[in-house]
Amino acid sequence: MSDSRKHRILMVSDFFYPNFGGVENHLYYLSQCLLNLVVVMTHAYGKHSGVIYMTGGLKVYYVPLRPTILIRENISLVHGHQAFSTLCHEALMHTHTMGYMVVFTDHSLYGFADLGSIHMNKVLQFTLADVTQAICVSHTSKENTVLRAGLPPEKVYVIPTAVDTAMFKPAPEGLSHDEIIIVVISRLVYRNGADLLVEVIPEVCRMHPNVRFIIGGDGPKRVRLEEMREKRFLQDRVEMLGAVPHAHVRSVLISGHIFLNSSLTEAFCIAILEAASCGLLTVLPDDMIVLAEPDPGDMVRAIGMAISILPKIDPQTMHLRMKKLYSWHDVAKRTEIVYDRALRCCNQSLTDRLSRYLSCGAWAGKLFCLVMIIDFLLWHVLQLWQRERRSEKTINEGLEDKHTEGCQNCRAKI
């Protein structure tokens, strides 16, 4: 196998089980495929604190404090996930100062115009100015990350996410087309297009009397959907399930014919892959998907088109195609290649690193350099303090040994 078999990888993100989502699933399945190489670090969630072993023996640190994991686990490379994870940003910054190679995976698209986007993009530019290699889950995501973070394109690799086709299988028997069921499973927030659903669902129900919706997910926009359902008297045609545990997602998917994704900023949606693997009309290639602009009228048109071609769809054939197209083992192999290339890179001096931070902006660059100088000095102070503690411990142990030996000699004389 590749050279990375000799190394130990620390996966870092705020997004991990017991929470559920695309990043959480990606991190879990990738770690399972790299089981002998990987340790996961995330922050504590209630009773999930300390070291927990998951399926297959995957070791997960749910940490309030995290200073000794790198040494204890003999880590050689740190892999951070998701731009929204503060734990990821902290780990990449501090561990690179400590001399570790770092890899970052971006899972989302983000804008450039609003205040939140500007702030997040500047933070990402700071974090990734010194990253060894980066991974994006789609070519669109790569373009977005390169523009946001100012990364050289040759440092960024595209590795799509995948789906567990053993878990997501079509229903044994096909559903009747007398009633068409459209499934939506998503966190109900603005970025996932929940406001579009409020306008699209009533129009589709008006145009197609045999269509019913099942909506799984929770979030701040759930209230708007429930208000729409009551105002339009669609209680019998729009079923709201609330949050759906990942173990129950398949049972919801196989109850429908079409999967509707209204996300505005999705880089590569795992939920779409899971739906396609269950045989729902939704995903690539072209004969497995119907695309629409983020506009209610165009979405209604696309849903009508999907309903018209639904009789031509064979769920079992779609499942087999997904099994060949999107494999976690393939994702793991490609990720290992990135690890190998990262670990062959040379660790650069503080001067080289500061020159890259200065290029991040007239004022921001100077601020970033100051932060990194403080981080560098703090690291060396901690190293000196640790050496002093070790020296004191060695001296104390020597004194204890001499005292014990003396006592034994005294007892022998007595």
UniProtKB/TrEMBL annotation:
Pathway: Glycolipid biosynthesis; glycosylphosphatidylinositol-anchor biosynthesis. Its EC number is 2.4.1.198. Residues 68-114 form the PIGA GPI anchor biosynthesis domain. Signal peptide: none annotated. InterPro entries: Glyco_trans_1, PIG-A/GPI3, PIGA_GPI_anchor_biosynthesis. Gene3D superfamilies: Glycogen Phosphorylase B (3.40.50.2000). It is an enzyme of class 2 (transferase). Residues 171-284 form the Glycosyl transferase family domain. GO terms for molecular function: phosphatidylinositol N-acetylglucosaminyltransferase activity. The keyword Membrane applies. Keywords: Glycosyltransferase, GPI-anchor biosynthesis, Membrane, Transferase, Transmembrane, Transmembrane helix. The chain crosses the membrane at residues 363-382. It holds the Pfam family PIGA. GO terms for cellular component: glycosylphosphatidylinositol-N-acetylglucosaminyltransferase (GPI-GnT) complex. One of its GO terms (biological process) is GPI anchor biosynthetic process. It comes from Dillenia turbinata. This is phosphatidylinositol N-acetylglucosaminyltransferase.
